[in-house]
Design a protein that fits this description.
heterodimer; A: 281 residues; mainly alpha; MetI-like fold; 11 helices; flat; B: 338 residues; alpha/beta; D-Maltodextrin-Binding Protein, domain 2; 15 helices; transmembrane helix (chain A); membrane (chain A); Aliphatic sulfonates transport permease protein SsuC (chain A)
Chain lengths: 281, 338
């Protein structure tokens, strides 16, 4: 009971005060919102680099454990001045673009089929689940026989690596499309194709695009594996060569190139998200 | 029921620690890196016959898939001794002052069958019947700066065409090179005789020459250890090499010179089989271990001329820093050099 009296007194108190001097109610919402702090990321990055450089120069970090960032940068400059950088980048980008595009297109096609047709779902989903966890690297000797040691096996490795996550992202996206929207389309008498084109595909698009982020990163990871087989040029081949020669500065330079590649691809997918998902705003 | 009290637990831990402590005093524990290749047998024989125990060494074997990780493990101190081909990675680590070559192992000698140059059937049909015809052909290697890379370029040098005319294809692992050669994806390869003989039995691969025609006294593999061991424990290194030398003598007598009795040879093959071709039954592995054994230098003697030639090749290809010298790479104080 005391609760109620206390509450009624509390609610009565403002009412009893003079209505003319109304206290402004402070806005207590907000918070838990991220502010973009553009300058923090570069500062953190530079601080880590500086610490690393100091550690390497002072001998705290042994040269066989990690080379100084300046040495890795020197290796990058060497790459650029000899013109090898473009040869390596060109070869790797070709493999990435072809392998990822084919893998994603096939993945979306299979994912949509699994999402839309019961027959495809029953037949293909177990197959996808069975083949997804197979490490593509373990199949490299077979890929040599199937696709040759030319571009075929490299593109195939990336294609297989990106295909499965795309399938799963796509059918999960289709499954998560709001059923009410589909029913609304049906009650408006839209044809099956219209519903797929105007409701299901746009509705699944956010999931497909976040699937792209994952599959693009997997493609970059697999680049090193793909370029294990008979690759003369390519960032992966460069990293493998640096590892075999224990040239750590080149190794770090190659890894940094892959990171930059990952950032660029992530930025491109961000642009695609803005464009393709503009209907959401 | 017996209750495991904290006090008995403490007593047990203490007893265990004391036992471990006294064990370490009795013999020096060392880790030896091996690859599953017949050329690594001497350490296995030395361990099985107790030659390391005679030197007060307790040996544990650590298996590796390739030479490069073994070199890195020695640099990090996880492994004490190893035996592999001189690779770019090994020289880079020597340049950083962490590992040293201390002896020689496998060497090409004129009287013993050595490494073979192989071509695929397709290339053979297309006219690659001598190594001279390898100009413009592809050649399988494991990694840039591996012994295969060196051999390919030495063939080019001696046959008088530019090194760039022979296209080397890095395929990372020996099984991948075998797959590529068998299916005709690459034209040529060179490999030790016991693998070569297995390949040339099939119709897909043809032998066209010998590596020893192109490289004089090729020191294929060397024994190496960390610089820390050389500097701080020279006695340990000497004892390891003494034990290893006895293993080498037995290996040569049993499998290369075949001067040992059949009974003793079979015993040695059985010892080797514990680590090499262990996934096959002994009667199947036996001929594979015996086939094409190559001579391992008595007392781990080292051919400096060959090592120097290899170092010069690495430098000329820009695969190792310019500043590496023989002094940085090799410590000649432990074994006889020639």
């Amino acid at each position: 009971m005391s609760h109620e009296t206390a509450a009624s007194e509390a609610s009565a108190a403002p009412a009893s005060a003079d209505p003319a001097v109304q206290r402004p109610v402070p806005f207590r919402g907000g918070g838990f919102v991220h502010r973009p702090l553009g300058s923090v990321a570069p500062v953190v990055f530079l601080a880590i680099l500086a610490l690393w450089e100091i550690g390497a120069r002072s001998g705290f970090i042994s040269p066989i454990a990690l080379p100084a960032p300046s040495e890795a940068f020197g290796a990058l400059v060497d790459l650029a001045t000899t013109g090898m950088l473009w040869k390596h980048l060109g070869a790797s980008l070709y493999r990435l673009v072809v392998g990822w595009t084919l893998g994603s297109l096939l993945g979306i096609a299979f994912g949509l089929a699994i999402g839309l047709f019961s027959l495809a779902r029953s037949g293909l989903l177990p197959l996808v689940s069975a083949l997804f966890p197979v490490p593509k690297i373990a199949l490299l000797p077979l890929f040599i026989i199937w696709f040759g040691i030319g571009e075929g096996s490299k593109v195939a490795t990336i294609l297989f690596g990106t295909f499965f996550p795309t399938v799963i992202a796509t059918y999960a996206g289709v499954d998560n499309v709001d059923r009410n929207l589909i029913r609304m389309g049906q009650s408006f008498g839209l044809s099956w194709l219209s519903i797929v084109r105007k409701i299901i595909v746009p509705g699944a698009m956010p999931a497909i695009l976040s699937g792209f982020r994952i599959s693009a990163s997997i493609a970059i990871v697999l680049l090193v594996a793909a370029e294990m087989i008979g690759a003369e040029f390519g960032i992966g081949a460069y990293i493998l060569m640096a590892g075999a020669l224990f040239a750590l500065d080149q190794l770090i330079a190659g890894v940094a190139l892959l990171s930059v590649l990952g950032l660029c691809i992530s930025w491109l997918i961000g642009r695609a998200e803005k464009r393709l998902l503009s209907w959401r705003s | 029921m017996y209750r495991f009290s904290r006090r008995t637990f403490g007593a047990l831990v203490l007893a265990g620690a004391v036992a471990a402590g006294t064990g370490a005093q009795a013999a020096d524990k060392i880790n030896v890196g091996i690859l599953s290749l017949a050329s690594h047998s001497p350490s296995i024989i030395a361990e099985a016959k107790g030659y390391f125990a005679e030197q007060d060494l307790e040996v544990a074997f650590v298996s590796f898939q390739a030479a490069q990780p073994m070199a890195v493990a020695i640099a990090s101190g996880d492994v004490d001794f190893g035996m592999t081909a001189i690779s770019g990675g090994l020289i880079s680590l020597a340049d950083k002052g962490v590992i040293k070559v201390i002896g020689g192992a496998l060497q090409e000698t004129p009287e013993i069958e050595g490494q073979k140059i192989l071509v695929s059937k397709a290339a053979h049909d297309a006219g690659v019947t001598t190594p001279a015809a390898l100009k413009g052909r592809s050649f399988g290697i494991t990694t840039t700066g591996s012994s295969f890379h060196y051999m390919a370029h030495k063939i080019a040098d001696k046959e008088g065409f530019a090194r760039s005319e022979i296209q080397v294809k890095p395929l990372q692992k020996v099984p991948a090179v075998i797959a590529a050669l068998k299916s005709g994806q690459i034209d040529a390869w060179s490999i030790v005789p016991n693998i070569a003989s297995g390949l040339t039995k099939g119709p897909e691969v043809v032998e066209i020459g010998k590596v020893s025609d192109y490289i004089d006294n090729y020191q294929v593999t060397t024994v190496f250890t960390s610089t820390a061991n050389v500097a701080d424990k020279p006695d340990l290194v000497k004892r390891f090499l003494a034990g290893l030398s006895k293993g080498i003598a037995d290996y040569n007598a049993a499998l290369v010179d075949k001067s040992m009795s059949e009974e003793d040879t079979a015993a040695i093959v059985a010892m080797i089989h514990k680590y090499i071709y262990a996934d096959q039954p002994l009667d199947k592995a036996d001929p594979r271990i015996r086939a094409g054994a190559m001579r391992i230098n008595e007392s781990a003697a080292l051919s400096l001329a060959s090592v120097e030639d290899q170092l010069e090749w690495f430098k000329s290809e820009g695969l190792v820093p310019e500043g590496v010298t023989m002094e940085k790479l090799v410590d000649t104080s432990f074994v006889e050099t020639r």
